[in-house]
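During the second half of the funding period, the structural biology subgroup turned its attention to how the target accommodates small molecules. The most pressing case was zinc ion, which had performed well in the primary screen but for which no bound structure existed. We therefore specified the complex as follows and requested a full 3D prediction, including the ligand pose.
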Amino acid sequence: MSHTKLSVEAIKDGTVIDHIPAGQGLAILRQFKLLDYGSAVTVGFNLPSKNHGSKDIIKITGVQLDDEAANRLALFAPTATVNVIADFSVVKKKHLTLPEKISEVFRCPNRNCASHGEPVTSLFYVRQNDGQTKLKCHYCEKTYVREAVAEA
Ligand SMILES: [Zn+2]
């Protein structure tokens, strides 16, 4: 048995997204439409974390994130861990890897970018540089640090 202190209610089956940087939990709930599944979602904000000061945690009953969703998650919370829960135990930890490109999720900060005027979906190429996640816009070819790019 794990002696990990449970700050929020344990779930029987589903997904626990742990080690989300504090403050990112709400963006993840919204971006991944986690409330739309109709499942019970338990969220903890600003919980004490041994390694990172404080963290957010999200538990979703009866839902498993697919690999694509897990990789998109890496753009919001690269240090997060995705635990698959079955019968109150962690049966799998998903390893997050950044996707090579991402569409729809973010909006290009360049106001003159062609992605704004036309009915096109945004598209960014993702790369890791000096420990920072960077997004290069497909349309205007400008590169931004992830934090500078707002959600669409
Ligand atoms: Zn652009």
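Two results from this model are relevant to the next phase. The chain has three helices and nine strands. Residues 67-76 form the longest helix (10 residues).
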